């Protein structure tokens, strides 16, 4: 082959490689530009959880609600302004998602260590992992290299995040729309082994559904008035025993018909996912392994990389 032709092929190969690698995340992205990012994030998450244990759950949920709307790009963190509609006021988020102040505190700490290097989207991914670990769950290496969006999607937040009224088919298809399997969906739902939900989101399940343990239903009814509009924000734990410990109790609850949300109980209701729920009751290790796989896949949802997006200075607004 002529030298010119082989050089040309080598160049094409390099170009192709550059094209794909810019679209990929890696666990070593900050190893020379900001090696201190992991300890910086962890120290702030640790003190936030020490102050309020629920915060670990709230941070984990922020990552989920970010990734399901135009990918893991920190779009959820953008504040509304008079000329910008963000995602915070969308139905699944309004009066519900929390923890933004902790993300701000992490960003401030990380900016001191490495100004202009680490994206808010990566901070969310690392903080979600740290929250799981601190509350007793599995550890994993977080892929990083995401950049931050300059846009958000109010309608995406309303349409892509599953509501608690969802049936199994709807849950499955909303996850499939993100490239996540039904198996990933069941494993990721184990996040509901931590955190709290508002009466407005479990009222119909505890009053109207029949696939619920009756004494559990009564207990939850007592903290959640039947009439919509009263006590809407009263809180109950998603895992009735240990809402601040990350283990497999969530699945044990489902098998005894003590899921708090209608959507939770759908995962164990005589359908295709029953056997997976049973397997996590028998093996916490199996749950942890599949949860980690699911979190890594969720973290891979359409990231902005290379020269797309930006590294926000303040996670609440575009630069
Ligand atoms: C499968 C579909 C899902 C549905 C329908 C759903 C729905 C909900 C609802 C309605 C709440 C309570 C919100 C409130 O009352 O204010 C909640 C809380 C929560 N969700 Fe989900 N969720 C789902 C999947 C996930 C996933 C995949 C994760 C993370 C991997 C997650 C993590 C959490 C956490 C940790 C909380 C508690 C937050 C806190 O206490 O601040 N959820 N979810």
Automatic annotation (TrEMBL):
CC per GO annotation: extracellular region
Intrachain disulfide bonds: 34-114, 67-72, 120-315, 199-224
UniProt domain Plant heme peroxidase family profile: residue ranges: 24-319
Chain positions of site Transition state stabilizer: 61
Binding residues for heme b: 192
Reactions accelerated catalytically: 2 a phenolic donor + H2O2 = 2 a phenolic radical donor + 2 H2O
Subcellular location per the Swiss-Prot or TrEMBL entry: Secreted
GO terms of molecular function: heme binding; lactoperoxidase activity; metal ion binding
Cofactor: Ca(2+); heme b
Pfam family, one: peroxidase
Signal peptide: 1-23
Protein function: Removal of H(2)O(2), oxidation of toxic reductants, biosynthesis and degradation of lignin, suberization, auxin catabolism, response to environmental stresses such as wounding, pathogen attack and oxidative stress.
Name this polypeptide is given: Peroxidase
Annotated organism of origin: Eleusine coracana subsp. coracana
Gene behind this protein: ga24979
